[in-house]
Amino acid sequence: MNDILSWVFEHQQMIYIVILSIFLGVEVIGRVPSVLHTPLMSGANAIHGVVIIGAIIVMGQAKEDNYLALILGFLAVVLGTLNVVGGFVVTDRMLEMFKKKK
């Protein structure tokens, strides 16, 4: 328990930043009109390409016996890829709605 408390006290500023960024993100997204949700969401999902690259780097730098880093890196690659593909599918579907019907 002392180890956890010492870690929290040591990283207190980072914890505050993460908590404040969560509240800020919720407020910003909550104020976006519903018409803009789809393009905003698809654009944000495309940014997950950075997550995929970061996860590949983490997996490449991890030692063979560091299973936690390998599992988390693998999950980040899989979930990031799903998010990127989903973002492009949503964008394609949205663009199809604006095409003229024959």
Task: Please describe what this structure looks like.
By secondary structure, this protein is an all-alpha fold. The protein contains 5 helices and no strands. It is flat and about 65 Å long.
Radius of gyration: 19 Å
Share of helical residues: over 70%
What class would the helix/strand composition place it in? mainly alpha
How much of the residues is beta strand, in percent? under 5%
| Strands, total number | 0
How many domain modules?
Answer: 2
Question: Which series of helices and strands comes N to C?
Answer: HHHHH
- Give the low-pLDDT segments: none
Bulk shape: flat
Please tell me the overall pLDDT.
Answer: 84
**What is the overall number of helices?**
5
Describe the sheet with the most strands: none
Q: How far is it from the N-terminal to the C-terminal residue, by CA? A: 67 Å
Break the fold down into its secondary structure elements and pairings.
Blueprint: H1 2-10, H2 12-30, H3 37-46, H4 48-61, H5 67-97
Helix pairs in contact: 3-5, 4-5
What tags apply to this protein structure?
102 residues, mainly alpha, 2 domains, 5 helices, 81% helix
